[in-house]
Amino acid sequence: MKVKNKQEEYDGFKQKALKRIMKYFEENESVDPVLFLKNKNGINKAVPLPPFMFASDFGKVTCSHLMKKILTVAGANMCCFITEAWQAKVKKEDYDESVGLDVPIRDRKDKEEILMLNFMHDHLEDEFMTFTIDREGNIPILEPNTIESGLQNLGKFDNLFNKSK
């Protein structure tokens, strides 16, 4: 039996999580927040996260701390945080980082609903994926939006493994 290296194992985890969430979305037409993890013994787990915790910034920060604790207790070395969210494309010249957005994204007219997947590993590069959720027809459709690697400072749910930056 061939021993997988860290990158092969991480890639396999990402594929498995992506297949599972796409199948779930197809069957349920929405996704509650969930943390998929794989521990150092190769055991995969899906940990549902309470949706009410995402209603406020305080709840999101609390949930982020809870997720870090779950990963530590489980002995996880890779995870994927998945949730539905709102996204708006803001021109760089219209955004002041010290102030933030003048109108919260959820209240903007140019917002779009997305499915966000944030893959993290304790030693390898993180990967962030989004899919636009098109609910115009009878059946919601997921359209690939972004795939980016090595991003940092993605907000409250970044760096769940506390890697030094």
Condensed summary:
This protein is 25% helix and 30% strand.
What can you tell me about this protein's structure?
With 165 residues, the chain is of the alpha+beta class. It has one domain. The chain is 25% helix and 30% strand. It has helices at residues 6-28, 57-74; strands at residues 34-39, 44-48, 76-87, 112-121, 127-134, 141-149. The mean pLDDT is 82.
User: Kindly, what is the distance between the CA atoms of the first and last residues, rounded to a whole number of angstroms?
Assistant: 36 Å
The helical percent reads 10-25%
Unreliable stretches covering 5 or more consecutive residues? none
What is the CA-atom radius of gyration, in angstroms? 17 Å
Major sheet details: 6 strands, antiparallel
Briefly note the structural class of the backbone: alpha+beta
- Element order, helices and strands? HEEHEEEE
Helix count equals 2
- Order of strands across the widest beta sheet? 2-1-3-4-5-6
Q: What is the molecular shape?
A: globular
Q: What portion of the residues fall into strands of 2 or more residues?
A: 25-35%
Mean pLDDT: 82
User: Structurally, how many domains make up the residues?
Assistant: 1
Strand-helix topology:
Layout: H1 6-28, E1 34-39, E2 44-48, H2 57-74, E3 76-87, E4 112-121, E5 127-134, E6 141-149
Antiparallel strand pairs: 1-2, 1-3, 3-4, 4-5, 5-6
Jot down its keywords.
30% strand, globular, 25% helix, alpha+beta, six-stranded antiparallel sheet, single chain, 165 residues
